[in-house]
Specification:
Helices cover 27% and strands 43% of the residues. It is α+β, with helices and mostly antiparallel strands and 269 residues long. The chain has 2 domains: 129 residues, no CATH class; 98 residues, no CATH class. Strands 1, 2, 3, 4, 10, 11 and 12 form a 7-stranded antiparallel β-sheet that branches. It has a 5-stranded antiparallel β-sheet with strand order 5-6-7-8-9. β7 and β8 form a beta hairpin. It starts with a helix and ends with a strand.
Length: 269
Amino acid sequence: MKRIVIGLIVVIVLLVALDFAAASAAEYQVSSKVREQLALPDDPSVKINGFPFLAQALAGDYKKVDVSADRLTVGEMHEVGVRAELYHVRVPLREILSGSPSIRVDDAQGSVLITKDDLIKQLPGVTKLTIGPVDRGALDAALADSANAAPGSSVTGISPDQSVRMVASTSVLGQKVDVSVIAVLQLAGRQIQISPRDIRVGSSADATRLPQVVQTGLRSMFTVRIDPGVLPFSVTPTSLQAVDNGLLISGVAHDLVISQGVSSASAGN
């Protein structure tokens, strides 16, 4: 009996090892195709979810595949992150084994992360920057204390999911100060538009005492339009939101085909 149990354990271990080895091989094939498709400098990280892998491989249907790549260069930005979640990735096992898979994807969600390190390059005169989301409580507090913001500041009518808070260090009238800005996020075609609304300098009342030309300069400084590049698999951007120390732009696509560096897809909400 003991030998039988040991034999079963050995078989199970071998099957698990075989499963992981097969998954690694498939991930490599998908990674190579995605690198080619997205014109990436290196193979992206690919993870095929679900166990056992071989059951998915025999069916030729992988329920969820995660793709990620970091520190990509887009224009003047060098820290761009790319993420994609692929649902029901369909590729016959024989094509994976042949090394020339034609990959079909039922649904894909792609996103690009613009980090604070790249965003600060779009803000001349700013030496430090933190960015993050804004909740309803912060918007209500800014509205209630609007008398201490720069004249013309207003957060009326904006919602948390379309706003971002930026705190930056810059020079105002020869002095180094911290500037806090609540801005509106918008998609302008395929570009990101940042439009400042509530601006505060130093202590809460300092902004109201600034000369008009300085206030205008601050608004201009934090008014930015960014081209994030093409989203993974050329999906149409439909969502833009602030996250901790970054801006995330994302979209979805359906009926995607990745084959020999060429893909086609229908995009939508």
